[in-house]
Amino acid sequence: xxxxxxxxxxxxxxxxxxxxxxxxxxxxxxxxxxxxxxxxxxxxxxxxxxxxxxxxxxxxxxxxxxxxxxxxxxxxxxxxxxxxxxxxxxxxxxxxxxxxxxxxxxxxxxxxxxxxxxxxxxxxxxxxxxxxxxxxxxxxxxxxxxxxxxxxxxxxxxxxxxxxxxxxxxxxxxxxxxxxxxxxxxxxxxxxxxxxxxx
Amino acid sequence: xxxxxxxxxxxxxxxxxxxxxxxxxxxxxxxxxxxxxxxxxxxxxxxxxxxxxxxxxxxxx
Lengths: 199, 61
Prior knowledge:
The structure holds two protein chains of two kinds. Chain A is of the alpha/beta class. Chain A has nine helices and seven strands; from the N terminus they run ββαβααααβαβαββαα. In chain A, strands 3-4-5 form a three-stranded parallel β-sheet. In chain A, strands 1-2 form a two-stranded antiparallel ribbon. Chain A has a two-stranded antiparallel ribbon with strand order 6-7. By secondary structure, chain B is mainly beta. Chain B has one domain. Chain B contains one helix and three strands.
């Protein structure tokens, strides 16, 4: 993504399964399939619910209806929204509530069977009930996927994560088990933040 | 993307080493080192007005 920003410069290493992400030889289409993203603002495509879920598969050349039907059902069930939309798969995804739309976006990410799901503040635009559904979903999804979630909400980090990495002004101050970070952090900056001394 | 490391076992699925990200003169990520384990939820947390966790996530993707 940073390739599109002229002033962006990146150095260092990001290894995904031992292979460098930023090598020019990296197949970015394959990378996008293996690392799914869910954004802060839900972004369903202006298509039906069904076509949103199968979008990645169609791009990959999969058009067999039975296969697509199976993936749609499995993905929507995995995203805990099947029962809410199974009778209106051909309706526009733009007519869904914010929480439903965000779960459709998670289902769309799951449909191509990624290894990692990056979630960028996935609940910041949602009401508390929808947030709870997404957080419960994260707990269920981690058995199949590795999840990285960006959050500015300390309580959410404490509720959903196994590991917390605390950043301050571009530096990674401390990373470790979430329980330890929130009860016995090693760095004073972390303690000052979680105890509300700044923020 | 070729896989140069066995996917199973305890090897991290993502391994970030000395990662620096600049936007012009802004130094958005400063020497970040972090491994992420499989089937775990890792939270990138920062103050609400600061975007470094997002920069880190965007760098990965």
